[in-house]
Amino acid sequence: MKNESLISNFLAVKNQIPEGVQLVAVSKNHPADNIKTIYDAGQKVFGENKVQELEEKYEILPKDIEWHLIGHLQTNKVKYIAPFVNTIQSVDSEKVLKEINKEAFKNSRIINILLQVKIAEEDSKFGLTISESKTIFESYLNGKFPNIKITGLMGMATFTENKNQIKTEFLKLKNLFDDINKSSSFETLSMGMSDDFELAIECGANSVRIGSAIFGARNYKE
Ligand SMILES: *Cc1c(COP(=O)(O)O)cnc(C)c1O
């Protein structure tokens, strides 16, 4: 995509996002040059879904980029991103959480994480159940993961045209967010992508993950 269209897409998206809502620009499958264009236009927070791609882009792009991992993370790959990743949004098991805590400790860091909660009806999506999320959060409050900061929740709605269904799923996550927020302070509710971010914001999201509306359709051919 040409730089002008990238920048105009980016500005159009920015315009639709109210103040106080964070934009995570999802750059997966797009070249580093395109990220640099958006970076130069003022965006500093980017999301990737694969460890290796994230590492490669981290190496060559400016070091003040705040990188978020938004895709499923295998325990044996945590070590590759632990030195630099800002937030891992896709924590979907206590096992991976333990590993992140261990690697964060080795790197003398505190890594921010979001618990990914399964709100979609589809079977294919990763994520914790609501009760698993609460259990993990309790172990966290008991000091089990000192090198991790659980800053909030992430969820993905079902891929459907049915707005009511999407809304119901988003509100389910918002309820859990409010529930946990009663006992401790949570910051981030990450929900909404290119097709549903406006609805997500209406339902209480304060962080959105937007890819194709900025970078264009992804080309999965390598
Ligand atoms: C790819 C992806 C996005 C961005 O999707 P778009 O529809 O391109 O905006 C957001 N969140 C997650 C977890 C993703 O994998």
Automatic annotation (TrEMBL):
One of its GO terms (molecular function) is pyridoxal phosphate binding. Keywords: Pyridoxal phosphate. The keyword Mitochondrion does not apply. InterPro entries: Ala_racemase_N, PLP-binding_barrel, PyrdxlP_homeostasis. SUPFAM superfamilies: PLP-binding barrel. The modification N6-(pyridoxal phosphate)lysine is found at residue 28. HAMAP family: PLP_homeostasis (MF_02087). NCBIfam families: YggS family pyridoxal phosphate-dependent enzyme. This is Pyridoxal phosphate homeostasis protein. It comes from Halpernia humi.
